[in-house]
Amino acid sequence: MPDESVQPPFLVFGAPKIGEQEIAEVEACLRSGWLGTGPRVAQFERDFAAWRGVQPAQVAAVNSCTAALHVSMVAAGIEPGSEVITTPLTFCATVNAIIHAGLKPVLADVDPLTQNIDPDAIEAAITPRTRAILPVHFAGRPCAMDRIMAIARKHNLIVIEDCAHAVETEFHGQNAGTFGDFGCYSFYVTKNVVTGEGGMILGRSEAHVARARMLALHGMSKDAWHRFGDQGYKHYQVVECGFKYNMMDLQAAIGLHQLARVGENWQCRRELWQRYDAELAGLPITLPAAPEADTRHGYHLYTVMIDPARCGISRDGFLDAMNAARIGTGVHYLSVPEHPYYQQQFGWQPEQWPNAMQLGRQTVSLPLSPAMSDADVDRVVQAVRKVLSGS
Ligand SMILES: *Cc1c(COP(=O)(O)O)cnc(C)c1O
């Protein structure tokens, strides 16, 4: 008999895998006396550009993906009040960034299988005021970028890709984030590459990126490293009313080594994904759709659907039971119109986007972190089986 009084440790959802190299680099950064935006951020930008196969001048590091989305839309010069079409199955930051850029979010429902924005729904949502499309590569699965780019060309729309889940994602041999005018990445603690808080802007146009970079640091014409570095004091000029969105060297110190292991960690999550697929098959839950041919899935989230009619338990009951088994889970996401702010501000109701509503009410994300051991995966699988068997 197992000793019931000894509780297993809580399995934290999305725990990052931090190596000794990150720890040493953070220490070296602290000892260098340069904590703010400086040489480590510049190195991280060069490494990231190389990873995504673009020029260094096509990327700018910032302190979050939310900031990246916001300044991208400002830098794109989209006139205030214009409409931006995005998905209802996303984190609130996607929609909030549109609002902060002075633009109007318009939702287009997702495909129930891929959980990504449906190109037909985008077309149906276009009005004379539409200026941009903001697709989210949900869970790391690429959106249908061929169709989305065709729609954008036809209607002369800006495309900003939310790549918060998609730092490794590819569609038909091309990297996610390089199709549109901008790709915006997140290095938040639960994401595939971690800096604590952090983000990256990738832009097709170097001029757009230069403007985004300036907007991310108060609208100043020179950043601090160039003012206080070893090249002698340089005056700066404020040429726009910008924001305080710059990444610190302290953050880049973590990111440099995370990025060096991005492939290794991806491989690890792919193996976890395949184990879940094999070991959860046959249970009365819907597993994530298999990755599409000629794409590379980012394997950021492993989402299963809890249909109470099939499972004999509600989604929220399932979350509670997993928590009681000391396993952290996530919900990605309750659809955006479930939240009172958007209902009040825009009059949205979840029923208007039924696929996102249904997914959002049934979805559960199981832990999928390269920090997990085989025993951790066993625990998750056992707990899912036990909860579903009602014992
Ligand atoms: C995490 C996330 C964001 C925000 O990223 P931050 O770096 O935390 O600002 C935006 N969009 C999606 C889809 C996300 O998952």
Describe this structure in words.
This protein is α/β, with parallel strands linked by helices. It folds into 2 domains: 20-260, Type I PLP-dependent aspartate aminotransferase-like (Major domain) (Aspartate Aminotransferase, domain 2); 262-389, Aspartate Aminotransferase, domain 1 (Alpha-Beta Complex). Helix content is 40%, strand content 12%. The protein has 15 helices and 12 strands. The strands form 3 sheets. Strands 1-9-8-5-4-2-3 form a 7-stranded mixed beta sheet, sandwiched between helices. Helix 1 runs antiparallel to helix 9 (249-260) and helix 3 packs across helix 7 (206-215). The site of pyridoxal-5'-phosphate has 14 residues, from helix 3 and helix 4.
Task: Briefly summarize what is shown.
The protein has 391 residues and is an alpha/beta fold. It contains 15 helices and twelve strands. A hairpin with a 2-residue loop joins strand 6 and strand 7.
Radius of gyration: 22 Å
The biggest beta sheet is recorded as: 7 strands, mixed
CATH homologous superfamily title of the largest domain: Type I PLP-dependent aspartate aminotransferase-like (Major domain)
Question: Structural class of the secondary elements?
Answer: alpha/beta
Which oligomeric form is depicted? single chain
Low-confidence stretches: none
In whole angstroms, the N-to-C terminal distance is 17 Å
Averaging pLDDT over every residue, what do you get? Answer: 96
Which CATH architecture of the largest domain is right?
3-Layer(aba) Sandwich
Q: Do you know the CATH topology of the largest domain?
A: Aspartate Aminotransferase, domain 2
